[in-house]
Amino acid sequence: MSDPITLPNKFLIIIAGPTGIGKSILAINLAKKFNAEIFSADSRQIYKEMTIGTAKPTLVDQEGIKHHFIDELSIHDKYSVGHYESDIMVRLNNYFKQNNIGILVGGTGLYINAVTAGLDEFPDVPDKIVEYLYLRYKTEGIQDLQNELFVKDPEYHKQIDLSNHRRIIRALSIIHACGKPYSSFLNRSKVIEKRYDTICILLEMPRDELYNNINIRVDRMISSGLVDEAYSLCQFKQVRALQTVGYQELFEFFDEKITLNEAIGLIKQNSRRYAKRQMTWFRKYGNWATFHPSDISRIQSYIEEIFGTV
Question: Are 141 and 209 in the same domain?
Answer without folding.
Answer: no
